[in-house]
Specification:
This protein is mostly helical. The protein has one domain. Helices cover 77% and strands 0% of the residues. It is built from 20 helices and no strands. Helix 1 packs antiparallel against helix 2 and helix 15 packs parallel to helix 17. It is globular and about 70 Å long. The two termini are 38 Å apart.
């Protein structure tokens, strides 16, 4: 009976009800339909338990650090560094677009924030250099997908906290997939640029290269401090998030000296607004997940998967990937992760997939949904920034979607791509 709660929830979401309210209403309806009214008084306790987690505290801190760093004007410095490194290649500004997103990923951990912050600069530069504006917008949206994959990552914090998986391990496991996606997009950009005759940039002088490298080191120190501190056991991921905020404040007030109290207030507002909305969904999701567990829904779905897949790990992962790609087209990534992780992760683990591996697969898969129509959030933001029609971007983004799906299946069936670094650092056995 409890299995029917999932289609009911999907129907509520399709009707336009906010995700948190849809989760709450579906949970309440579930208690009634499953004749478990006596458990309703446990809802406040379950909701609080879903949020009362030390790892979850990392999320608002990482968001705040990203907000502060963005207001210090690091965007121009990161773009200049990317131009120095790859701008002189064929389709150089396209490569710059990708590399700048990789750099920014280590600071914001958010794909939409990447598009909003770096997008205006990248799109204008590419457009002035002769690139088709819709292509520049599509590439900006596609490259932003690496934001939540290369650590630090907000969705990895959420997954780790929900599923009791090492957040440090998740961060380490996301490094190779993030760089593989970036490399794949740069290869696609090279061939498209060669076909369309997009220009090369000028090779920078030694003086210009040195200046951009010095300016780029300061913002890139933040992900290095975060990852280094976590990997070497100096602090936990949650403590690393607080250190990231401290470093962002140090950069803004001491190094760049361009951060004001107004910027701090605006950063706090932005971080509180975003993390607050995620917390509400996370709390409501914990109640829904608990209800599903009470009615043994994960076990029922596991039996269905085993029947269809015949116990095959290959087919099980194929079905999960296809399902997530479809869900990602219609649902917000955070909500989809909160709803589906407690259901799908145990199924994958049951056929021998490592908890860390399935976690990365879910995060990468749902991130692709950010650039798949009809509800790709990054596409809408990029369309607004570039002032280009949505359907024009869709035509241009299709090759990048294909390469990201190809990388997804590569990391699905070659576990070493995700597990190598965590094993190397001793984060997993």
């Amino acid at each position: 009976m409890g299995v029917w709660l999932l289609p009911i929830l999907l129907l509520l979401i399709i009707t336009g009800i906010p995700i948190s309210f849809a989760l709450g209403f579906a949970s309440l309806l579930g208690f009634i339909l499953l004749d478990k009214i006596e458990f309703i008084h446990l809802i406040p306790q379950t909701l609080f338990s879903g949020l009362n987690s030390f790892p979850v505290m990392a999320m608002p801190f990482f968001m705040l650090a990203g907000e502060i760093m963005t207001r210090t004007g690091i965007t121009d410095r990161l773009v200049n560094l990317a131009i120095t490194l790859v701008g002189w290649l064929r389709g150089g500004l396209g490569h710059v677009n990708v590399l700048a997103s990789v750099f920014f990923a280590g600071i914001s951990g958010s794909a939409v924030a990447d598009v909003a912050a770096v997008g205006p600069i990248e799109i204008e530069m590419m457009s002035r250099a002769g690139y088709k504006r819709s292509y520049a917008a599509a590439m900006t949206a596609a490259s932003a997908v690496v934001g939540p994959i290369i650590p630090p990552s907000i969705i990895m914090v959420i997954y780790g906290a929900m599923m009791n998986v090492s957040i440090a391990g998740m961060f380490a496991a996301g490094i190779i997939p993030g760089f593989l996606i970036a490399l794949g997009m740069m290869i696609v950009n090279h061939f498209i640029s060669k076909k369309r005759g997009y220009p090369k940039g000028e090779v920078p002088t030694v003086k210009e290269a040195g200046k951009s490298l010095v300016q780029g080191i300061v913002p890139l120190m933040m992900p290095a401090i975060i990852l280094g501190g976590i990997m070497f056991g100096i602090f936990t991921p949650t403590e690393a998030a607080a250190v990231a905020v401290a470093y962002a404040l140090f950069v803004g007030f001491v190094i760049y000296r361009n951060l004001t109290m107004k910027d701090i207030i605006l950063s706090l507002k932005g971080a509180f607004r975003t993390s607050g909305s995620v917390m509400i969904i996370l709390g409501a999701g914990s109640v829904f997940a608990w209800l599903l567990a009470v009615d043994n829904v994960p076990q029922q779905l596991a039996e269905i998967f085993i029947t269809i897949a015949g116990g095959s790990q290959f087919i099980t992962l194929l079905i999960i990937n296809i399902l997530l790609l479809i869900v990602g087209m219609f649902m917000d990534i955070t909500a989809a992760l909160i709803i589906l992780a407690p259901v799908l992760a145990p199924i994958a683990i049951n056929v021998g997939v490592h908890p860390l591996h399935i976690g990365i697969l879910m995060c990468v898969n749902l991130n692709i949904g950010l650039i798949t129509p009809p509800l790709g959030a990054c596409l809408f933001v990029s369309s607004a920034v570039a002032k280009v029609k949505f359907n024009e971007i869709i035509k241009e983004v299709f090759p990048f979607i294909l390469v990201e799906i190809a990388v997804l299946f590569l990391i699905t069936y070659v576990p070493a791509t995700t597990m190598f670094i965590p094993k190397l650092l001793g984060l997993i056995n």
